[in-house]
Amino acid sequence: MKHFSDAPLAPLVLGFAGLIPFVGGAFALALGGPAALQAANALPVYAAVVLSFMAGGRWAAEIVLRADAPRTGVLALAVILSLAGWLAVLMQVWNRPGLPFDTELAGWLILIGGFLISYLWDRSAARSATFPLWYAPLRLALTLGAVVSLAAAAALRAL
Q1: CA-CA distance, 46 to 52, in Å (whole number)?
Q2: Which residues span the domain enclosing 38?
Q3: Do the Cβ atoms of 16 and 79 come closer than 8 Å?
Q4: How far apart are CA 6 and CA 92, in angstroms?
């Protein structure tokens, strides 16, 4: 984890604090009962909010760094990631028996994919010096925490 130790304390503490609902949600799903139902509703909403937050950060960075000519592709990908989170939540809400596929599982997979895309995008930005070098290893750790939690939640809900 090259340069992870160079990260300022605030992004480290706040970033890992942001994992609490991910890990807690997966844990609550594992417990079963009423807590699992609440977690099954709350976790994808939280994941969509965080995914949108990450995308909004990329939108803002693009506008700050390229105020005169922001790249349409960067702005579009930020919007697509936000919309993907929203769609994932809708798919989970709309899941009903008898549908041609499990929309809840598809929603979990969309969220996982969104976080992976966001990480790869941020890693690229850190490598090109758009973001500081410590950002990529921090994002890797946070993305792994989110993705493992979402994958565990999806597996538990699919059982």
Answers
A1: 10
A2: 10-158
A3: no
A4: 39
